[in-house]
Amino acid sequence: MRDRMRLLGMNMTRRSNRRWVVAVTYAALLALGAIVWTLSGNRGEARAFTLLLLVASLLVNGIIFGGYGCWGLIRPFNTNKPFGFGTPSHNDERDLRRRDRMHFYAYRIVVSLFLLGYFLGRDLFQHPQVGNALLVGALVLGLTLPQALLLWIEPDMEFEEPAAPEYPPA
Amino acid sequence: MSNKVGSKSNEEMRIYNRLAVLRAERGLTRQELAGAVDVNYQTIGFLERGDYSPSLALAFALSEFFGVPIEAIFSPRPFAPLKTWPAAGSGQ
């Protein structure tokens, strides 16, 4: 998490606020997914909206969640300089431990969705539309879930203002 | 193979600490302590509340910073209050 946890003027040190942001973001992505679903009869439009959904997921990372973006509530996961420039993010041992654990949780969920989507989409089950939806859902979750889990699970953060500089008496 | 000491995972095993006391004694803010041992200040809060158990490297860094042995800062059992120490109140 970043030192300054603010998003659109809201205090994100509180877990309840962060949970609202995660819920609203996924509701928006789900709405976009529903459009893809309803347009699935029209191949061209469905492809365009699928692409839009994936781009929206990347924007969610970059602007809201962070982690894999320059901005957002979570420091960049990569502790090296992103793309070889800028300042490396300072993730301490706890940050790294939490990051790795959330990726482990997300990995299991995403792989389960991929497997389910793959098997449902096969001829055996005759549900290609459901299979495709699950595969796209798995892609979206693969891009965003570790960060979302981190924002959802981390407890309320205590924010401490930096100590004021001490001036010698006049 | 199991042994009694190592039977609980790190996350199940609660580690008690005296960080808040030591920090207050020295009049340090969390940010100052965090800067001294190179972690984020929120991690100091998690440590003080017992929500996070530090790595051995961080425990050594804290021990070195405060100038006390690790076992004076961290313990697997709750610390006894100072007033119950044998020397307390005996004038020694």
Radius of gyration of chain A: 20 Å
Helix percentage range of chain B: 40-55%
Q: How many distinct beta strands of chain A?
A: 2
Number of helices of chain A: 4
Structural class designation of chain A: mainly alpha
User: Biggest sheet of chain B: strands side by side, in what order?
Assistant: 1-2
Outline type of chain A: elongated
Largest sheet of chain B: 2 strands, antiparallel
CATH C-level category of the domain at 16-69 in chain B = Mainly Alpha
Low-confidence stretches of chain A: none
Number of structural units classed as domains of chain A: 1
- The rounded distance between the terminal residues' Cα atoms of chain A is 40 Å
Instruction: Please trace the helix and strand order of chain B, writing H or E for each element.
Output: EHHHHHE
Report the CATH architecture of the domain at 16-69 in chain B.
Orthogonal Bundle
Contiguous uncertain segments of 5+ residues of chain B: none
N/C terminus separation of chain B: 47 Å
Mean pLDDT of chain A: 81
Basic shape of chain B: globular
Task: Kindly summarize this structure in a few lines.
The complex is a heterodimer of chains A (about 170) and B (about 90). With about 170 residues, chain A is mainly alpha-helical.
Write the layout of secondary structure elements.
The complex is a heterodimer of chains A (170) and B (92).
Chain A lengths: L5 E2 L2 E2 L3 H24 L4 H23 L27 H29 L6 H26 L17
Antiparallel strand pairs in A: 1-2
Helix pairs in contact in A: 1-2, 1-4, 2-4, 3-4
Chain B lengths: L15 E2 L1 H7 L4 H8 L3 H8 L7 H11 L3 H4 E2 L17
Antiparallel strand pairs in B: 1-2
Helix pairs in contact in B: 2-3
